[in-house]
Amino acid sequence: MTDTTTTPISSSPASHILEPKHHHFMKQALRLASHALHTNEVPVACVFVHSPTNSIVSYGMNSTNDSLSGVKHAEFRGIEEILSKTCSLPEFQTGGGKQPIEIFKEIELYVTVEPCVMCASALRQIGIKRVYFGCGNERFGGNGSVLKINDDPQVKDLFTGYVSYPGIYRKCAILLLREFYTRENGKAPEPRQKKNRVLKLDEFPEIKWKDYLTEEEFLRFYGLTNRESFQNNTDIIVPQADENEEADLFDTLMADPVQDISDIIEVSSQPLCLANKKQKLQL
Ligand SMILES: [Zn+2]
């Protein structure tokens, strides 16, 4: 699976990961995951973004505990909302306008944890444009950790698959999961020192980039400056980011127990507006 760009890697932009929008949208997904955590759900959440307009068109949080249904994963809620909105468009009801298949090819997913095999397959079947995720899903991952449904050539369907980029706020996504499982196990959470806390690299599993991407795909997105990360299975380096940014973000999320997500709900409740006018993000 290769990205659509045909420009040589050496003349690609320095690094797409430096685009603030990727961090912005993953932060929204992490806020939702934190909200899920505080409602006793596994903290996995996502936002679906219409890429031509930079707008969040739906979101999802795990609700497997509340619903007692093992298939109520974050991605499914988001997909269903987009389908529902599409069917509500006046032009769709009169037999015109874009079909879901055309809409999903303009939509990107930001999800805190790698989609499981079930969700990875669903995302492929709807023809999602691209996926960005935080940490890998070692037990059930469908984008490379266990199976690579997203671009397995043996899977025969309408689409050739999609590329997915891991590692965006990976440590924060892991910390949220650890917080959940610590609570699940009934252990008292360890006190966190907010200031001067340093995340030691060895506290986190390595990220095996080759499980998810070819080297060419990696370099096109993360830039040549991160080549060593690909080879050494280490997190990418984002030059302008503070080294404690992820710890601080986690502390911020934990400091607000209910995590007001009304802004995300409001923006994603708007009808689909597919005019190609990019929104200016408040980053
Ligand atoms: Zn899933």
UniProtKB/TrEMBL annotation:
Catalytic reaction annotation: adenosine(34) in tRNA + H2O + H(+) = inosine(34) in tRNA + NH4(+)
Family matches, as Gene3D superfamilies: Cytidine Deaminase, domain 2 (3.40.140.10)
EC numbers, comma separated: 3.5.4.33
Residue stretches making up the CMP/dCMP-type deaminase domain: 20-147
One cellular-component annotation, GO: cytoplasm
UniProt GO BP: tRNA wobble adenosine to inosine editing
InterPro entries with a match to the protein in the record: CMP_dCMP_dom, Cytidine_deaminase-like
Keywords: Hydrolase, Metal-binding, tRNA processing, Zinc
Family matches, as Pfam families: dCMP_cyt_deam_1
Cofactor(s) the protein requires to work: Zn(2+)
GO molecular function: metal ion binding; tRNA-specific adenosine-34 deaminase activity
SUPFAM superfamilies listed in its UniProt record: Cytidine deaminase-like (SSF53927)
Family listed: Belongs to the cytidine and deoxycytidylate deaminase family. ADAT2 subfamily.
Identification of the protein by name: tRNA(adenine(34)) deaminase
Organism (species): Wickerhamomyces pijperi
